[in-house]
Amino acid sequence: MTDTRFDRAPGDRPTLTDREEGTSNGVLVYSIGLVLAVILTATSFWVANTSLLWAPGISLGLAVLAIAQMGVHLVFFLHITTGPDNTNNVLALAFGVLIVFLVVVGSLWIMADLNDNMMLPAELMNLHMQH
Question: What is the pLDDT confidence band of residue 13, given thresholds at 50, 70 and 90?
Answer without folding.
Answer: low
